[in-house]
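Troubleshooting log. The previous run stalled partway through. Resubmitting the same three chains, unchanged.
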Amino acid sequence: MENMGEWEKMNLLNELIQGRELTKQLQHQLHLAVSSSSSSSSHDQTQEMLIHRILASYDKALSMLNAEAPGGGCPRRMSESPPSLGGSPMSGGDSDRDLNDGSTPRKRKAMQRWTKRVHVAPGTGLEGPLDDGFSWRKYGQKDILGAKYPRGYYRCTHRNVQGCLATKQVQRSDDDPTVFEITYRGRHTCSHHPATVVPPPLPENQTDSNASVDAAPLQVIQPQPQPNQTHSQDIAFDFRGGLTVLTQTLDSKNDNHNLTSSMFNFPSTPDNIFGIMSNNSDFSSIPHFLPSSTSGTNCFSVSPARLDGFQVGPSFGAPESELSMIVSAATSGNNSQATVRSDSDLPLRGMEFANEDISFDNPGFFP
DNA sequence: ACGATTTGACCATT
DNA sequence: AATGGTCAAATCGT
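Second attempt completed without errors. Output:
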């Protein structure tokens, strides 16, 4: 665990959270099944006990992970790229996001697109960029005018079977051949979870490669849509009016990087107190985030909300129009990934969002 | 035999 | 017309 990169930790965290939530759903299903039957057997009790133990294991693993993070549960920043492409499973990509009632006209744009630069350390035997966990199929290669290296075109392997429209383009950098510029388009709607395992390197002569390096690409943390998770819209409605995200412009030197500064304000309600957390223990090192004036610490919160997530933004390769975070309810301990995305892919700058603009992955997030 | 990759042709956009 | 993106037949690898 010591050697685990921040990115891997966040991957792990997300997997654990998802595993826990799925287990809770299973528990719920079992309860329904048991209550509909006349008697409960010892078999049912065994199942219940097993689920409790699974949940306890998840909780233990999660607390161990949290304990590793410095700053009292304020995990450090990840090395690169956002934990999610913003995709939340429930938000499940563009289509799901547009499930709002239509009262707020939501401009739908062409596919979102964002670029990530991936550096491959030379001489490590890993010349070929590593897989990003998703399964891609190359469908074309093209010489690009003015570029030394050809551009490779990839689409999700599950395009035909599941209609997943995610694609990516891989272009080796002219000035630094160890750098690959990977442009992602569209979100994965397939149900295949990205593997966090590092696949074997590609052959040396394969200049164009299929992907990234140690820093996993954006999608890796993106929770994948689950067939049974279809309530994001309901949740948004439940919380209508209770949640606001305000992004502000940072006019400091950081603006030179054309980054977005974001300030979040999540008003708490008696039953659902929650907050945002950053995975960076030092907000000042994240160019586009400011320390919360209310917390005065490294954490980014609205008291008494609990900080418990991470923040991503354009500097990590996500589209400027999108921001993802993990929110956690202080009362229930439930976690969820939340994603805010602006209309028309405009940068998140100086905008205010109501909760219908925010999608939550976890249907059980709000009690 | 089957799935993945290669590669020239074709299409869309500017 | 030039360029980038995609298609699909041919080829390759297992």
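Takeaways: Residues 137-141, 157 of chain A lie near DNA strand B (CB under 10 Å from a C1'). The CA atoms of residues 141 and 276 of chain A lie 42 Å apart.
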